């Protein structure tokens, strides 16, 4: 699976990448009322411009991405000095208030997540096959402190993937145990039959 993603990046088969920040992020992030200055975790981040959108609005970003190519392209296409260092088994690239950790999201642990207080998932959950999605939802919950909010953009489609179809029942089954889940909108069906759905999630506290 990891090799498939690295191959995709190597060959430039990155149809999932968007040239502009995602409209649903722009529309819905402000309503989450995440305090400015809160660090936002972006799992499976690719070279998404959504990270710059967040960083430009005073949300420091910590992205995690398997493919070094994605991270190198991201910083090359950005502005500002780049600092590189190694931390806890990850190669980290920092540019301004963006830090991109190169490695496996499932190897990123709570002690590295201390400052994180929000998250943004566009095409991360839906990039993973079914069994791994359960692991993803659990791992994300482990990393988020009570009260942390995030935006999830999932997708439904005819069978196939990636991207995989993750319907509303599955979103609830995956996240209800640890998050308050609110459906925000369904996008228009696209020509390829994909349809995005937008969700707000809030990490529950121990007694909620
Ligand atoms: C469908 S792309 C979405 C990228 C980005 N979120 C966006 O919206 O453009 C999924 C990305 O996750 C990366 N990836 C897949 N499995 C991963 C893992 N276990 N840890 C970190 N990154 C992973 C892939 O290399 C790929 O760049």
From TrEMBL:
Q: Which UniProt keywords apply?
A: Cytoplasm, Methyltransferase, S-adenosyl-L-methionine, Transferase
- EC number of this enzyme: 2.1.1.67
Q: Which GO terms describe its biological process?
A: methylation
Q: What class of enzyme is it?
A: transferase
One GO molecular function term of this record is:
thiopurine S-methyltransferase activity
Q: What is this protein called?
A: Thiopurine S-methyltransferase
Provide the protein's localization: Cytoplasm
Task: State the reactions this protein catalyses.
Answer: S-adenosyl-L-methionine + a thiopurine = S-adenosyl-L-homocysteine + a thiopurine S-methylether
Q: Which organism is it from?
A: Halomonas urmiana
Residues bound to S-adenosyl-L-methionine are: 9, 44, 65, 122
